[in-house]
Amino acid sequence: MKAILGKTCLAVLTSAAIGVSASAQAAEDCPLPGNLRVVIGSTSTGGDTYQVSSMVVDQLAEQLDINAKVDAVGVMPGFQALERSRQGNTIMIFHDGSYLGHLYGVNGYPDIFSKFVVGPTIAINPGNAYLVPKSSPYQSMSDIIEAAGNGKQVKVAIQPGGVSEIGFTALKNAVRMQYPGKESNIVAVNTGSQADKNQLLFDGAVDVINGSVQANEQYTQLPADDQKAMRFVWITAREKTIAQTNEEGMGDTTREQLLQYVTPNASVPMSEDQDFTFDKEFFLLYNKDMDPAAIDCIDNALADVYEGDELQEQLKRSFFVPDYKPTQEAASYLEEKNDEYKTIISDLKG
User: Fold this and answer.
1) Which CATH number is 48's domain given?
2) CA 261 to chain centre
3) Are the C-beta atoms of 348 and 172 separated by less than 8 Å?
4) Co-location of 180 and 218 in the same domain
5) How confident is the model over 121-141, as pLDDT tens digits?
6) Which residues contact 20 (CB under 8 A, 6 or more apart)?
7) Which residue from 52, 114, 41 is spatially nearest to 80, judged by alpha carbons?
């Protein structure tokens, strides 16, 4: 049976010096269970949340010498499991959708900043994107904003209430800034999976879809006369985030090519002097009653893991950007991010 805790939390003390065994000292310093359940806000074992979580959790378990399992239970069951786990035997990994759902008023999404302890960030998926058919008259986001401002309805397929919708909200905000009263010409077509959004574009039922570099890059390689052929018009990630990806980019699209779709090359204004950007970031969540020493232990273990190259290279090979911030720094950063997007969402609701 594996020891309760591993090398990160193990004090370098001899039993002769302190009169107790090393394992007993480790258990006292780092009270994590021998078996750790990591629930995620997704039911898919093929999606980005599971991919990131499995890579990080495997490394964390090895560092702490514990057994840890990623459990793809979905959003609501994940929150419920976390709320029940006062002893810290269950933690959660999710992304910005966890607080965006609350901002959009989606039923069942709590205010994570008051309900839980927001833990360290672990990775960014830089691939959140918007695409049009290759035959589309819209060559840029500026074309789309201008068309809406001139009275043209632009239909955008999104999955409402989270990461998929935040770029749509930013687009409406940009139209409102430049053409007050015309933002209603940016029309949401609410749907579900990426396959559903793609199909709407194939059928000509929408003008733009929210997608991702990972899921949609293959369609951008098709010839223009193919019904499924698409073009990127916007990647919401920050320029410096895309710049951290591997030079070969994703599929047959290089990093240099991807940079053409981020600000400042693809501009969606958020204010008079700032473009909107959005990095989809993954982070840990803990039960509010979890022992702070156990939280510190995970922070220390992850810090050790991210000092090495293995996890960082593994993440980059799968088109993720390593993004470790310890709990205190991450919680403050994510709450600022929440407040920034809250302003845009609230203004448009008003």
Assistant:
1) 3.40.190.150
2) 19
3) yes
4) yes
5) 999 999 999 999 999 999 999
6) none
7) 41
Domain CATH code at residue 237? 3.40.190.10
What value does the mean pLDDT of the chain take?
91
Q: What local confidence, expressed as pLDDT, does residue 113 receive?
A: 98
Residues in the chain, pLDDT under 70: 1-29, 349-350
Same domain assignment for residues 36 and 160: no
Count structural domains, the chain. 2
Q: What torsion, rounded to 10 degrees, do the Cα atoms 17, 21, 25, 30 define?
A: 150
- This prediction's pTM: 0.88
Q: Which residue's entry shows tokens 């010096």? A: 17
Judgement on whether residues 337 and 220 belong to the same structural domain of the protein: no
Domain end point (choices 248, 275, 302): 275
Strands 154-158 and 90-95: unpaired
Domain that holds residue 292: 15-125+280-349
The answer to the question of residue 93 being in a domain is yes
What is the predicted pLDDT for the residue at 349?
67
Residue 4 within a domain = no
pLDDT of residue 32: 83
Residue 10 lies in a domain: no
CA dihedral 277→336→126→346, nearest 10 degrees, is -50
What residues contact 80, with CB distance under 8 A and at least 6 apart?
none
Residue at which a domain ends, from 275, 291, 316: 275
- Give residue 270's identity as a one-letter amino acid code: M
Angle at 170 between CA 164 and CA 173, to 5 degrees: 145
> Quick one: how far is CA 157 from the chain centroid?
19
Q: Please name which of 172, 122, 105, 126 lies closest in space to residue 334, comparing C-alpha atoms.
A: 122
Strands, DSSP E only, in the chain? 35-40, 67-72, 90-95, 116-125, 128-133, 154-158, 186-190, 208-212, 230-235, 269-271, 274-275, 280-287, 321-325
Contact (CB, 8 A) for 80 and 15: no
Q: What are phi and psi of 14, to 5 degrees?
A: -90, 150
In a domain, 337, yes or no: yes
